[in-house]
Amino acid sequence: MVEKNTLKEILAEPETAEELEIPQSILIDIILRCLYNEGNVAFRRLAQVIRVPAALPKQLDWLRQEHLVEVSQSGTYGHLNYVYKLTGAGEDRARESMERSQYVGPAPVPVHRYNKAIELQTSGPRSIAVEKVQEALSDMILPDDFHRRIGPAVSSGASLFLYGPSGNGKTTIAQRMSKLIAGTDPIWLPYALTAGGQIIQIHDRLFHNAAEVEKETSGIDGRWSLFQRPSVVVGGELKMESLDLRFDSVAKIYEAPLQLKANGGMFLIDDFGRQQVSPVDLLNRWIVPLENAVDFLRLRTGQTIVVPFRTLIVFSTNLDPYKLADDAFYRRIQMKVGVFSPNDERYRTIFLKVCEQFNIPFDEMSFNHLLEKWYRQTGRALQSVHPRDILKIVQALCYYDGSQARMTPELIDEACYSYFVEQ
């Protein structure tokens, strides 16, 4: 088999079953399971499900010769108009196949071909204009030139650590970064991989959104599709098993770990330090991928497969970073960005903006009352999220009274009594 060194060669539509570079037994099993699940199946339907039309005729002819499949309806255009069904012996073979795996879908791609495709599509920096980064953050009130701390991380695909008190926009900033990445050139990804005779499902509708195809895609291997760069976001629910191959004991296939689904895009670990696994264990899991840009995954058979680790990994925490990890780990995180509480001037700017959004007239006296009573006298830190939340309660109070939304010291006090937890 000639080695494929360019993306065009990797994505070229296979003309024979051999060019799929997967065990033929895998393809035959998928055909049998599809016929078993659906009964009488037209060739066009098989091609639609398995996505390798040129490789199917030879396999179907072999299944007919073995009296496992028969043609229940034929036409004048050969295979294209055939309808197939299982014979009695074929049903027995299909049931045996269902015991091995219940996967029915696009034929898998060999892991070595996937690795090459990811490397080709993630080499070099992303082309993201300064103006795009500024526009993405334009509705947030941040320090001057803050975009210069975020933009280089997005462009380079480097790892990033966002830290600082809660309620000041870390998660929002990360979400804007994911939109920036999704807006760059789309990426070709397969639906499933095969390694060691096993099937690993990569495609996940939660994270993989189809990209608009501008060019003709005829001649492209149907096992691949064009997607927006994925963004995988996890929080306190993250467990260690989500970062390793997960074997589904019912479907008898492997589900790709989250970082594999995020390849070519962004993987955000929000609320870092609050996961059900210890921060040290979680950080240790990332040391090799961050250092070498590869990840090692283990099948139940004990076989280890190597895959690229080409995702912008973002940690976001409101805990003290140096209580979570040591210098050795942070050296591997190329960029660290603090997102801190606003000063009085920025807090006022945020408050004015939220007033405009909620159509609440700004009142200077009420604002100064808020600062004095609820921040200066209590020693409470300003947070960027407070204006939105306080004014939402003010708006709800006015709506409840049937009055026009407005700011008064009394309404500010009532809202803050509801919002802040007093000691």
Strand arrangement, major sheet: 4-7-8-12-11
Q: What's the CATH superfamily of the largest domain, by name?
A: P-loop containing nucleotide triphosphate hydrolases
Helix content: 40-55%
Task: Count up the domains.
Answer: 3
Largest sheet: 5 strands, mixed
CATH top level assignment of the largest domain: Alpha Beta
Number of strands: 17
Beta-sheet strand percentage? Answer: 15-25%
CATH architecture classification name of the largest domain: 3-Layer(aba) Sandwich
Please tell me the overall pLDDT.
90
- The helix count comes to 17
Shape: elongated
* Sheet/helix structural class: alpha/beta
Provide the gyration radius in Å.
28 Å
Straight-line distance between termini: 72 Å
CATH topology of the largest domain: Rossmann fold
**Low-pLDDT segments:** none
Keywords:
alpha/beta; five-stranded mixed sheet; Arc Repressor Mutant, subunit A; 3 domains; Rossmann fold; 423 residues; single chain; 17 helices; five-stranded parallel sheet
Short description:
By secondary structure, the protein is of the alpha/beta class.
How are the elements arranged and paired?
Layout: H1 7-11, H2 24-38, E1 41-42, H3 43-50, H4 56-65, E2 69-73, E3 83-86, H5 88-100, E4 109-110, H6 111-122, H7 130-136, H8 147-156, E5 160-163, H9 170-182, E6 187-190, E7 192-195, E8 198-201, E9 224-227, E10 231-234, E11 246-248, E12 253-255, H10 258-261, E13 266-269, H11 279-292, E14 294-298, E15 304-308, E16 312-317, H12 321-324, H13 327-330, E17 335-338, H14 344-358, H15 364-376, H16 386-401, H17 409-419
Parallel strand pairs: 4-7, 5-16, 5-17, 8-12, 10-13, 13-16
Antiparallel strand pairs: 1-3, 2-3, 6-9, 7-8, 11-12, 14-15
Helix pairs in contact: 2-5, 14-16, 15-17, 16-17
